[in-house]
Amino acid sequence: MAKRTYVCRKCKRFTTDKECPICKSTALSASWKGLIVINDPNDSEIAKTLGITVPGKYALFVD
Ligand SMILES: [Zn+2]
Known about the structure:
Layout: E1 6-8, E2 14-15, E3 28-29, E4 32-38, H1 45-50, E5 56-62
Antiparallel strand pairs: 1-2, 1-3, 4-5
The structure holds zinc ion (ZN).
Zinc ion binds near residues 11, 13, 23 and 25.
């Protein structure tokens, strides 16, 4: 059975848990648009724009 994917409203990180693995926030949303994968936050303009410092999968927009 597929797990539901949520996005953290604070840092936009994807998670299948009930809390964000990065900031431990429980403010998660199942409504999101756009998916980006950040491999090297220090070498990514998008990561800098979004304030991402940890490699991983992120959503561009979260409702
Ligand atoms: Zn978070």
